[in-house]
Amino acid sequence: MLACAALAGLAAAGTPAASQGPKVRASHVVPFKVIRSGGNPRPIVVARFNGHPLRMMVHSNASFYAQLEHAKAAAFGVVLTAGHRAFGIDRPGHVSDLGLDPGIVATLQVGNATVRDARVSVFEVPQDDYGMLGIGWIRDNRVVLDFARNQALVAPSPAEVSAKAAALRKAGYVALPMQFDEKEQRYTVRATLHGITRTMAVTSASELTVDLPWAEAAKLPLGKDTGEGSGPTGTHVSEYRLDAPIRLQIGDWTSPDIAGGSISDIYGYAARPRPADPDAGISGYLGGVFLKRTGAVIDFGSRILYVRSR
Prior knowledge:
Number of helices: 7
Mean pLDDT: 87
Low-confidence stretches: 2-16
Shape: globular
Strand order of the largest sheet: 15-16-17-23-18-22-19
Distance between the termini: 28 Å
Number of strands: 25
């Protein structure tokens, strides 16, 4: 998973990313590249902070608005505000001495969409060549991520969203409704694996991950420990390869056989207590190989996950 992924996991950086309001300009189709870092696929777009360009990971499991490291925040003119605390790692398992500082940037632009006075969480991550756009930015801009075409719609108009939905239906896609968990700041679906139903977070920047207790209940074999389970607060947990093909049922739709991904203690990774009731929390991440295998399109604004019929 690696640390930045699950800032991605269940760890929140700063306060929950409540919407900053409709401070956006014009829609635009923005291409993204998927790179693999820390064992996870990352969709990368180019953003501009006060005009300064930087590659940014679009990260729907990250509970902040946007993230930059301290050096880049200073170079881009981010104004730091009160609220410093310990958070962030500069290498796996090592908490950075710089901690986390909230900040404000005058303009944050992706494509033709600009957010003014955008909140930025300033903290360190092991990779230093890109930052992150989290759930607050995704919600404000009603982002649509198309993993079949590697392109995003940023601040699309209602007409553009309708046209996209019609094209997907014509192509034989199935529309699966998502829920938004206000407490966890996650888009979720209920998925069934080997007859056991749990809640999974739909994630743009983490691999397909099954939480360890769910995997044990479903009797999934544990593959090799990848050694990549380093969390954002300095934790380290075993992360096992998910080698055996699995099928997930979401509503009336059943996925094709999907091999790859991982099995991990996602609560231990995020250093958070596990709910006693398995239905009260998140039991996996629907990302990575699942998104690619199903040609997924995530319409965050409409709360719909589109997948190929089979």
